[in-house]
Amino acid sequence: MKSREYLPAKCRDDELARKHFEKARWPDGPVCPHCGGKSSATRIEPRPGSKRPVRKGVWQCNGCRRQFTVTVGTIFQDSRIPLHKWLLAIHLMGSFSNGISAYRLQRELDLGSYRTALFMVRRIRWALKQQPIKQEIVWRRKGINVPESLRSALAAES
Ligand SMILES: [Zn+2]
Could you tell me the residue ranges of all domains in the chain? Predict the structure, then answer.
């Protein structure tokens, strides 16, 4: 990725981005998307000495024992794109009143392919049309730009 020192760290670091999303989505602690169980999940850490990599940000519900991450049920689910790139993409798409082209996004985020950029643009555009988008509201409150069209749509939610 190009040098973006002026951006918040969470737009440059996958772990920080994940923490940001977890805070935004679960202000009172993780909520199991499978059974709705609140605040009783355990973060799965790699066993000491284990060489098997643990998927990042995995939680296990203490109720139903199923595993989940903060991206389950969101537009970020099932993609290998690092979360900080998603965050930056949303930031960029919100910074231009006409949005941003997939081509430009590919360049700005240093994405491997145009298809990936197009995938992100489509998912984000779709999400921006859905209500409620709680994460969007949180980002807006934190000063990340949101286009005027979205702002009015979100006003009802805040
Ligand atoms: Zn559960």
Answer: 27-68, 78-155
Model-level pTM? 0.72
Task: Return all residues near 72 (Cβ < 8 A) that are at least 6 apart.
Answer: 33
The pLDDT profile of the chain, 158 residues, written as one tens digit per residue, is: 455 667 788 888 999 999 988 988 888 899 999 999 886 899 988 777 777 766 788 999 999 999 999 988 888 887 889 999 998 898 888 666 667 899 999 999 999 999 999 999 998 887 776 655 555 545 665 665 555 545 544 444 43
CA of 134 to the centre of ligand 1 (A): 21
149 C-alpha to ligand 1 centroid (Å) = 36
At which residue do the structure tokens 């609140």 appear?
Answer: 38
Distance from the alpha carbon of residue 38 to the mean position of ligand 1, in angstroms = 8
CA 98 to chain centroid, in Å, comes to: 22
